[in-house]
From TrEMBL:
UniProt domain Activator of Hsp90 ATPase homologue 1/2-like C-terminal: residue ranges: 23-160, 190-325
Upper classification of the organism: Bacteria, Bacillati, Actinomycetota, Actinomycetes, Micrococcales
CDD domains: SRPBCC_CalC_Aha1-like
Protein's recorded name: Uncharacterized protein YndB with AHSA1/START domain
Secretion signal span: none
Domain of life: Bacteria
InterPro entries named among the record's database cross-references: ASHA1/2-like_C, START-like_dom_sf
Family per record: Belongs to the AHA1 family.
Pfam hit, one: AHSA1
Originating organism: Leucobacter aridicollis
Coiled coil (residue ranges): none
Length: 329
């Protein structure tokens, strides 16, 4: 159990939890910033968490839900207030409905996470600031302290895994619920470099090609809300063509973009018959480069399974490897 102290201050309206770990600060920091990792310990063992959004920058948002043994859902959100890379971050933490909408009937609180190096590894101090004494007592009565102890007791196993989340592990696929899928890949480059590689037409033509034997003759990049993007891939033998088109819904350079996407073919050039997905791209600085997290929301389970069965993830891995070797090298 990493927790070494829990202190309640009813005058300052705070609850402070101190935990020590036998890993470097960077390893512990990344565990909190990487959605794949934090969801392995944020919820208690019987209420595992799923993060469907985890921005990690001021003004950003995180959305998560914890699922109980009978399928019951307890959802929450963070609003990111401040980030001092590798040292501390501050969020507003609150309750939410299952769709992520903040629950105004429940209290929210300010949480500050501070990471420092120690002789044996690292120390995390988590301070929760409550609005009133009644709210502090209400949340403690709901089991907040016990929940934090159970959740943080799982961190050691996550941070001691030095291979599953490291650079070089390849593109990972995770199914979320019935209609979503998340791909994750650490790319050896800075956030600015990786963002540019996703939003510069000349660079995209060099790496986002999937398997060998294809080119991208059309690459129209959208960089503002409401603009449309369009791409076309063509096989070297000229026998196959297809592409994607869609609209930008949100964009916050260089960390996050949300777009719609529909596949078009010569038989359906306007993509009228293609199912539409929503693609949420988030870039997170981690040890070894930038974590590229892509959450895709499909219209239904059958569409998700159909698209994933095309070898999409393998094609993404080939493209990401090309990005590292030919663009960012």
């Amino acid at each position: 159990m990493p927790i070494t102290a829990v202190t309640q201050d009813t005058d300052a309206l705070t609850l402070t939890v101190v935990a020590d770990f036998a890993v470097p600060v960077r390893r512990l920091w990344d565990a909190y910033l990487d959605p794949r990792q934090i969801e392995r310990f944020w919820g208690p063992p019987t209420y595992p968490a799923t993060f469907t959004r985890h921005d990690g920058y001021p003004g950003g948002v995180s959305n998560y839900r914890m699922t109980g043994p009978e399928g019951e859902i307890s959802a929450g959100y963070w609003t990111w207030v401040a980030v001092d890379e590798g040292h501390s971050f501050e969020v507003r933490d609150g309750f939410a409905s299952e769709d992520g909408t903040p629950n105004a009937e429940m209290p929210d609180m300010r949480m500050v996470f501070e990471f420092v190096e120690t002789a044996l590894g690292s120390r995390l101090t988590t301070t929760t600031f409550f609005n009133t004494l009644d709210e502090l007592e209400q949340l403690r009565a709901m089991g907040m302290e016990e929940g934090m102890r159970e959740a943080m007791g799982q961190i050691d196993a996550v941070v001691e895994d030095l291979t599953a989340f490291a650079a070089g592990a390849g593109t990972e696929l995770q199914l979320i619920g019935d209609t979503q899928a998340r791909t994750s890949r650490i790319v050896r480059g800075t956030v600015d470099q990786v963002w540019k590689a996703h939003h510069d037409a000349d660079l995209l033509r060099r790496w986002q090609l999937g398997p060998d034997g294809w080119t991208m003759p059309v690459c129209e990049v959208a960089t503002a809300v409401g603009e449309r993007h369009r791409t076309e891939w063509a096989s070297d033998d000229g026998e196959q063509r297809f592409g994607f088109t869609g609209t930008v819904l949100e964009i916050e350079p260089p960390r996050r973009s949300v777009t719609t996407e529909k596949m078009w073919t010569p038989e359906d050039p306007e993509a009228a018959q293609s199912p539409e997905t929503i693609n949420e791209l988030t870039l997170i600085p981690v040890e070894g480069g930038t974590l590229v997290s892509l959450l895709i929301t499909y219209p239904d389970t059958a569409t998700r399974e159909m698209i994933l069965s095309t070898g999409m993830v393998d094609g993404m891995e080939t493209s990401y490897a090309r990005l590292e070797d030919e663009v960012l090298a």
